[in-house]
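hi! just following up on the protien thing from before. the input was this:
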Amino acid sequence: MTNVSPEHLEYLKKRRRRAWMVKAGQWLILFVFFGIWELAAAAQLIDPFIFSQPSRMWKAMIAMAMDGSLFTHISVTLGEAILGFVLSAILGTLAAVLLWWNPFLRKTLNPYLVVLNSLPKTALAPIIIVWIGNNVRAVIVTAILTSIVVTILTALTGFIEVSEDKIKLVETFGGSKRQVLTKVVLPASAPALVNAMEINIGLSFVGVIVGELLTAKAGLGYLIVYGSQIFKMDWVMLSVILLSLLAALLYQVIVALEKRWIQK
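and the predicted 3d structure came back as:
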């Protein structure tokens, strides 16, 4: 650090200060949001029976944690979301590699991929349940179908946008198409693949919750449906908050992997 100029040290301090202010602002917004929610419910500005309130959700969470049901629902939803995410990431990337490898197949299937991407995949959930059955597999398939098309399109776009000069350079030295893929295309497309995974985290949870709303006997989606049926809105709102926390946690895992994989 002795070779660093005072100006650069001051710049680093400003960056750290700005990063701290951003984090503080994010936490402040969160606390203010829950504080206003709690006060509005306490003052009867909103009906706590319909909208719940943070203190009621906290009590519900403690009660469910004590009997173990909370951890059961969280583990079921988290396991299904992770499995759906991993399978959609693997299958989507393999499909993107196949389409990159075969330009004729890519041009032929491209219109269908565009249509599938615009199709509300969650509307297929009832059909999937009829085809596969009223079980966990239907939930996982729904999660995969919700996110796999985005993976294919995002990864394929990254593959196609790789510099042609780099590809020609490898081919000039006698590199095979497999070597072009493994040595040039995949490494250069790492940001696109990570971006696809960041998007798929949320989409996987969407697919899982849609499946659980229709068919599950456990999980946060099931808790939302069951809680709304018996007017336990504390359970419903708690489940929504927990889903947000789980999605944010998995997103941070992907961000950490991105820093280690791309920025190392």
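Residues 51-261 form a domain with the MetI-like fold fold (CATH 1.10.3720.10).
The mean pLDDT is 83.
cheers
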